[in-house]
Amino acid sequence: MQKKVDLNDLLHKYHLGTCNAEELALLESWYAQSIPSDHEIAEEELLQARSQVWQRLKSRLNFGRNILPLWTRISAAAILFLSFSVGILFYLKQDTGKIKNQTTNKFAKNDIPPGGNKAYLTLANGKRITLTDAGVGTLAEESGIEISKNAEGQIVYKIADQAGNTKGALMAMNSIETPKGGQYQVLLPDGTKVWLNAASRLTYPVSFASRNRTVELTGEAYFEVAKDATHPFKVKSSGQEVEVLGTHFNVNAYKDESVIRTSLMEGSVKVSSASGSANGIFLKPGQQSKVAGTGIQVENVGVDEVLDWKNGNFVFNDEDLRSILRKVARWYDVEIVYEVDPSEVSLLGIVSRSKNVSVILDAIEQTEQVHFKIEGRRIIVMK
């Protein structure tokens, strides 16, 4: 007979460190035990249940500042059968100052620290400024526009000479680029705020006066667009264009991703495929578009998952290992080398981006599906 368990009670006891061996075993297999062995479930039902599990875990553990990683393992292959395969589940308490060390010593010698605020600003005249090392204050002036770095490390544009804000300013283009292991914020000339994720590049005009507000993005960025009904704001990426008047949204347009994802948090945006329908589609808050070739798909998405990088976390909702490691490669500036195919591994969890790479690698190793070795700035995926 299957034993019924109170997940909330078990998680509470786990949090306090009072679970016995039997309770730990029950906790690690709680979902598998909740499905009768003779009950056949369609794949669609399993996918729906998996989503519900993720939402229940987030609500029960109240993901936020006090929780670092929570992980469960779900074998992708198990979806095709009768139940999930649930493995190691753990989390670290952060607020007491006594963080339980879950990482193994094997990564200590070659551990890699996280990324930080790093970027390069390229002016219209070709001058390249390293923003990481630049001090607070004015960085440059061109075409009547003053470019400065404020105390928060943000790049700010403002009109310094109204008379100079003429043809030269209208034609001048700047770009800000984050390397692997970098992120940065910029306040554009129209007041739009942009957060750039690692390995990203944003190209934009020095002045938006008397012209459409059009920028070009490679990589990932979150936009809080200043409202201007007479001048639409456009974000062009390889394969798509996003048009807005004033709203909050995220665009993921990395070249090594198979689709371009645009996620809307507030307002309304129009997403068009460069080679698809000229009419495009409009997103509602909480929706995400996926552009691949000429097609556009729309689905609902959680804000926590989309803006995890901006909020200082990695959040994985049934995400496959290759996708996770692409994010790891960008943030930790490493190369991923595969000696095995990790296609069977998918993960649920959250972990802080402020931690060394060993925290993520050790968490993934708890699945017992893959192991890792660090050699310089190369992470080797092994069986």
Automatic annotation (TrEMBL):
Residues 175-270 form the FecR protein domain. The chain crosses the membrane at residues 70-92. Residues 314-381 form the Protein FecR C-terminal domain. Gene3D superfamilies: 2.60.120.1440, 3.55.50.30. The keyword Membrane applies. The keyword Transmembrane helix applies. It holds the Pfam family FecR_C. Keywords: Membrane, Transmembrane, Transmembrane helix. This is DUF4974 domain-containing protein. It comes from Pedobacter gandavensis.
